[in-house]
What does this fold into?
Amino acid sequence: MTITSTTTLTIVRNAVAATVVVLAFAAGICAAFDRHILTTWVGFFFIAATPAEIVLSMLWQSRHPIFIARLAQPAKGLVLTGITALSGGVIGLLLFNFAGAGVSPPTPMLLMLAMVSVSRSCG
It folds into this structure.
């Protein structure tokens, strides 16, 4: 085997291992909640966090704010994840109270509004 093929195999192996870890983590999140909570509150939170995730990762390419761009991994990833979660909480709280009128659990109409808001922020 050449150096290039060994490197390619290492990259593929790491990618497969990372995919398995992420899928296991996602399955753990899904298993931690019953179906009703997962399809209302947890889903709503993740939908509300999506615009911040898009801005941080795709628009700013994790280069802004500057003090975060200078961090090494995994600190950079943890800080960006925290900012995304905080933004999702704030956006979700605003949507829940103003658009959803505080009706608990989040109604399907509010979830749809959040999804449409995400699609509008992306395109």
Remarks:
- The mean pLDDT is 85.
- The chain has two domains: 1-32, 34-122.
- DSSP finds five helices and no strands in the chain.
